[in-house]
Structure formats: structure tokens, C-alpha cells
Amino acid sequence: MTTAIWWIKRDFRLHDNDALDAALKHAQLVLPVFVFESDLIAQPDYSAMHVHAWCQALHDLRARLIDRGSNVYIVTGEVLSVFTQLHDEIGFDTIFSHEETGTHWTYKRDISVAHWCERYAVEWNESYQNGVIRCLKNRNDRQSVFQQRLIKSPTVAAPEEIPIPSAMHEVCAAQDIPIFEQFFKADKYSKIQFETMQIVSETAALNELRSFLTRRGVAYSGGISSPNTAFEAGSRLSPHLAWGTLSLRTVFGATSNAQLHYKTGVDENAKQWGKSLRAFTSRLHWHDHFIQRLESASEMEFRAINPAYRNVIYEDDPTKLDAWINGYTGYPMIDACMRCLQATGFMNFRMRAMVVSFAVYGLHLSWRTIHAPLARVFLDYEPGIHLSQLQMQAGVVGINTIRVYSPVKQIIDQDPDCVFIKRWIPELSSFDSAAITAYETTVLGEYPPPIIDFKVNSKLMKDQIFKVRKSQDGKAASQEVLQKHGSRKKPMATKSKIQMQLF
Ligand SMILES: Cc1cc2nc3c(=O)[nH]c(=O)nc-3n(C[C@H](O)[C@H](O)[C@H](O)COP(=O)(O)OP(=O)(O)OC[C@H]3O[C@@H](n4cnc5c(N)ncnc54)[C@H](O)[C@@H]3O)c2cc1C
Description:
By secondary structure, the protein is of the alpha/beta class. It folds into three domains: 3-158, HUPs (Rossmann fold, 3-Layer(aba) Sandwich); 201-296, Serine Threonine Protein Phosphatase 5, Tetratricopeptide repeat (Alpha Horseshoe); 300-499, DNA Cyclobutane Dipyrimidine Photolyase, subunit A, domain 3 (Orthogonal Bundle). 51% of the residues lie in helices and 7% in strands. The chain contains 23 helices and seven strands. The strands form two sheets. It has a five-stranded parallel beta sheet, with helices on both faces. A two-stranded parallel ribbon has the order 6-7. β4 (94-98), α5 (104-119) and β5 (123-127) form a beta-alpha-beta unit. Bound molecules: flavin-adenine dinucleotide. Flavin-adenine dinucleotide (FAD) binds next to α11, α13, α16 and α18.
């Protein structure tokens, strides 16, 4: 009997899982394996939120596997020793997994897995999880690969049976899924509101997708900018796509069906649905676009993708970093967002961009300095999107319009009654919105005064960035970045332009 391993990593699902499907086509027995990798968990960009998400996803996955007469082998430790031990015990010939575009740590781990496979004469078969291309030579190829993988290929149904080696039934049944508290000290997760946090599992993902395409999604266009509405109007699929409890192909397929339904049906909001789902689909394309950037330029984890911006000077004051990440800067909209992130792991795009622009332009913190602390409070941490967005918002990619978000304008536009702010900053609940909006000149009880002068500081940072942007070296380097990493869908802004949302 041939035996294979399905190595679960960022793909906690049975439906539309190419790695699992390939394993079942190859071998008579397939053992699903998940390793709580101690060294990965100890990385500065990983947190209790992420491990909690894996635990939830595993509980759901295990229940679905047991329904199919199967189970999952769960170990804490290091992947290579787990494979060695399993190789001795069950003698598999192939490992099936998805390709992962991750950080330097996961890349190095994958290299060592490849070496281990060579040594043990085991095949390692990696399937595509999305439209991201390894060793991409020409970005113009992306569109056809994307079409082929995500639009033209049908989704794969969840298998009805996953036979595992008989000896492993008892072993798996005796294994508990760890609890995340095992890996972290209590103060590392004390702020997380687990009871209200989004559930990450295949069951939850399919429910989220359904509720978005049948009910919530109508409000998407216009609803995703404010933190008061985005929690409901946004798809909330990001943690599911990040941890693989849902496939991107499933989302594209279901969205395309929904678009057809609203176009040809009699829904009274058909026009609004059309607008919302068009906007949503373009975000789905961005998902791969940004992950591709890290895949093609892995050095961007450590330095700006655009070499011209590598010498920008930051203050990187740890006191300011601490005030920012914990929500005590004296800027109500920033603090509300940071406290909300610490508790829920979610924030809408505009507010994420605003807190990064505040950290870089206002507090003079480098994108590198804020990378790990911010990743830890994003339930949907996806390294490719995260690093690309951090650099974009910090203005060091050189091919996008520079946006510096005014924290006060964002209150006026997105939370004029300060509902969101008061929810997350209880010290401000007795003040009216006019007083809160005038925080720069009003004493607000115990709430701290602004720790910096945003207008003065942001001008200093903008001057630095703009100087690079206008320089000959800056222009030449940006052309290269545009060529290599720019979107092929629409022409990018190549003109040096700073968008003044500020004053
Ligand atoms: C500094 C910063 C860091 C970010 N880090 C992450 C991250 O680690 N993981 C992550 O999934 N998103 C990240 N984003 C992108 C975006 O904010 C979230 O994807 C979005 O807010 C998630 O909400 P949603 O699922 O309701 O998204 P929707 O608006 O419903 O979008 C659907 C899906 O499209 C993708 N998507 C949406 N916006 C973007 C975008 N701008 N770039 C790339 N893909 C996008 C996501 O997979 C998302 O789930 C970041 C944005 C910023 C500004």
C-alpha cells in the first residue's frame, strides 16, 4: 500500500484542496499532519492570535475528518523530526503540501524539508494555493496563469473518504489539540477578546462567504471605509484566505455566480450589488498581486523594495512605538484603531493604512520597526500583503501616490459621532464628539495629550521621501520597480505626487 503525508500548512480545509486531492490520487493511505512549529511560533511576527486561529481551524478540520473515517496527526515541535519519526513508523513515499510564500524563516524551513526529502528519497509535491508564480520571469504571464488556475479550473469537492494507516487511528484519537495558552505567557494575550473574535475554520469560512454574497455584500461599496460599518460590510474573508480555511478559487467562483444571479435576477438592489461585487473582485486580485511581490522580491522582508529609499532616516523611538501599538498616542482615531486591533485582530483597509501612515510620518517609526508588532495583531497576517502594504503606506515603493492620512479628517469622515472612538477608548465616553475632534487643543480628562505634533512631524518625513522621489536615482529606481512589480491591469501613477489628505 502506498502511503503519503498531507502536510497541512495554511490550508486547513477539505473543500477545494489541491494538495489533499493530489495526495489521494497518488496514495491509498494519506495521513493529514499538522505541526505546531515551536520555532515559528517564537518568531516576532507570530502571536497568540495566530495560534488560536490554527487551534480553531484544527478542531473543525478534525471533526470533518472524523466524519470521513479519518483523523489528523498533531505534534508540537519541529517538522523534520516529525517527518523522520513518521517515516520510520509508517514509511510514506511522498509529502503533499501547498506552495507557501512566507517569510525568510518559512523559506529556510522549506529548504531544509527539501533536503530531508532528498536524503530519505521522499518526493515533495507542492500544489498551487493561488495565482502566485514561483520564479516568475515575465509579469505579463500572470494574467493567463491566474485565469487558468483560479477562473477556468473548477473547484475540487471535499473528499468523501481519507483512509489513514490503521495504526494511526488510535494514535491520532489519543492526541489533544494543544491550547494556545501553552505557547504564550498570559500578558501576551491578555488584551485579546477571544469570545467576540472572528472564528477561523472551514465551517465559519463557508458561512462568512455565504452571508457576504447573499446579504452583507450589498453594502460593500461605500461601507468598507468606516470602522463603524466595515466589520459587517466587508467580506471578512481575509483570515480564511490567510490560513487557507477557504480557497481563493472558491471565492472567485461563488462571486462570479452571485454576479450572474444579481445581473439576471429581479433583486431590487441589483445595481448596488453589481457595484459592490465589482469592487470586491478587484480586491481579490490585489491579494495575489501583493503576495507575488514578496515571492519575487523576498528581500523586501528586510529592506525597502526600492533601493533608492533604503537610507531614509527614522527616529525609531521605542517609547513612541509602545504608545502607538498600545493605543496611547493622544490621537483618538489612532488609539481606537490600535486598541480595536489588539482586541479583535481586525481593522478595515483605510484604518490600517492610516495607523501605518501615522506611525511612519507622525512618529517617525520605520516600516521595519512596526512590521512584527503589527503582524502580531492582525488575525489575517499574510506576509506578502502585509509587507507590501507597509512599504506602500510608508512611501518607500516609489511607484504609488503617497498618502498621508490626517487622523482628524478620518474622524470627521469616518466616525463623526465618535461611536467607534468611544467604544474603544472608554476614557472618552463622557466627552462630546466636538471636544474629541478638537483633541489637539482640548484637555480630555485622563486621556493623554498628543505625544507629537503631527503636522510638523509629517512634513519632515514627507520632505525626506519627496527628496528621494524627485532625485535622478529615485526616478530611475522607481522605473525599475514599476517594470518588475507594477500592476499590469491599470497604468500606475508614475508622476511624483503627494496626495494631501492632510491639511
Ligand atoms: C498596512 C496594511 C497591512 C495589511 N496586512 C494585511 C494582511 O496581513 N493580510 C490581509 O489579508 N490583508 C492585509 N491588508 C489588506 C486589507 O486591509 C485587508 O485584506 C482587508 O481589510 C481585510 O478585510 P476583508 O476580508 O473584509 O476584505 P475585503 O475588502 O472584503 O477584500 C476581500 C479580500 O481581498 C483581499 N484584499 C483586500 N484588500 C486588499 C489589499 N489592499 N491588498 C491585498 N489584498 C487585499 C483580502 O484577501 C480580502 O480578504 C493590509 C492593509 C494594510 C494597509
